[in-house]
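Q: My labmate handed me this sequence with no annotations at all. I'd like to see what the chain might look like in three dimensions before we decide whether it's worth expressing. Could you predict it?
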Amino acid sequence: MRCLVALILTVLIVTPEVEAKTLPDKFLGTFKLERDENFDEYLKARASGKPDRYDMENLTTKKDTHHKDWALGEEFQDEALDSTQHKITFDLKDPNTLTETHIKVDDPTDVETYEYRRDGDYLVMKMSWKGVSTSRYYKKQ
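A: Here is what I predict for the chain of 141 residues:
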């Protein structure tokens, strides 16, 4: 029995490793999409994704939020900046104002609405809480 175990170990040690394909370094890293050409039309032609569905990321120093696969006017539940579950609805207040309304699941009386407007090359997000207001400016890339 010892002879058999030694033989198997020897075979495993001596067997050369199979060469794996390696992705060249030039394809590694973080890339930010700068532009595309005719991509929406391409997706429509392929019938990819769901029409009129959106994803949104809000990256902050405190916490990042990622709301995926939502539609205007449809409520969904997700984790918010305060790490609690919220019922969230994105909608158009008027042709120039997108709203994002949050209702805390554990306290439905706690409602907060963020407003987004375009100002030139910027998307301006306005929000306030207990008398403290802020505006965040996102430059269109």
